Amino acid sequence: MDRLARALRAALSKSPAPLRAVARAAAVDQSLLVRVVSGERRATSDLCERVMRALERWGTDCAAGASILRRALTRKGD
Q: Quick one: average pLDDT of 9-15?
């Protein structure tokens, strides 16, 4: 599993929001998130940014997850 996928998995596990709600808020297909988290698909920076922004909109409850993604997106390499 790549670094962005690990970060996405960690961010979603920190979020109290259901995966379906995160997918909807991020304007991505729920099945895509499931496949990335399970390792079937590779995470992209665009996907992680969308999820990060969605988590940020929820505020403090999801701040830890958004922070995980922000750090992963600012690191060089993959």
A: 92
